[in-house]
Amino acid sequence: MNSAIENLKARGFFAQCSNVEELSRLMDIGPITFYLGVDPTGPSAHIGHMVPFFAFRHLLNAGHKGIALMGDGTARLGDPSGRTETRKMLSYEELDRNAESIKAQIGRFIHFDGTSTWTVHNKDWLANLNYIDFLREIGSHFSVNRMLSFESYRRRMETGLSFVEFNYQLLQSYDFLELYRRHGCRLQLGGDDQWGNLVAGVELIRRVEGVEAIALTFPLVTNSDGSKMGKTIKGALFLDPAITSPYDFFQYWRNIQDADIKRYLLMFTFLSVEEINGLTEAGKNPNDAKERLAWELTASIHGKEEADKARSGARAAFGGEGDKSAMPTVELARAKFQAGYNVVDLFYDAALAPTKSEARRLVQQGGAFVLSDGESQAINDVAAGIGTDSLDGFGELVLRAGKKRYCVVKAK
User: Fold this and answer.
1) Tens of pLDDT along 226-237?
2) Angle, vertex CA 151, rays to CA 95 and CA 39, nearest 5
């Protein structure tokens, strides 16, 4: 088996492949061209979008050529895969803005040199399709019965599948055909929930061009307890630092469960398998491996400088050493401390609880802490007031919610 495929398998990037023997043969002959699509349904990519892009980088490192497809054409309809309801329709202008934003984010992770890797937009060939010609040339190769046999469509049939969404598979398959014609692309990558769409593209190329194309999917990533990977109290773990700060991004990975350390080091870093085995072998401190994972991943997404700052902030929070300037910070009125800042209001205003009811429960359950001058004090009384005596010489204090969430409060 080709070494690039073996590497993907070893790192957890292999769920299904339509023809792994042919893929291995093509890779042995020379570089192949592959593609990965992203639908710009929001202004920022999140960590779930990046799972296949780590595999993308591994294939580039093995000498193959990659295309990142911005799905600003297909997103005009919406992909029903993995959904229980119809996606909200966005304006074309909003989709275009989202596509440019996501392309810039991915461009900080993948160097698009225009030779071995590049970006394309599928609106370039989808936006002005002639519907009658498209149905004659493309639609005639699709079986409705076969389309409905795929899990993504079968599940949606229970809640309602619109005709607009039903066309999505045809358009994604047409993307693969266009990329084969334009760039000789033979391999499409995607999450395992995309399997039906990917193999439909393989079949379309076989019928129209008489060529064997290949589909390769990756497992959908969840935490070891079955919860959704990349899901935080504030929502998804986004790449945009204005939505998810580099510190919060770092902290997410620093606080993963021990059972997930090795798997995530394999998937989300470019450390060798041997080094990862060394970091996670029996007897090693799991916190060291978590910090290494958090630093490597934050550096990949936000740069080494931000990773260093986030690590320093985390060390300041957990060990009392480091620079707390990287921690989330909020400015609140000094007058409220002078009057005795109600602890429930304080934790809510510091965004450590999404509602005052949640802040009240946090206090009642012993999860609210005030850190001042190196000491940590649990606040259990919802009527307690935090005064100016809790502020340090710089007019600051640190709040902790539970074991892992911190915020620096500056009194102004």
Assistant:
1) 877 887 766 788
2) 15
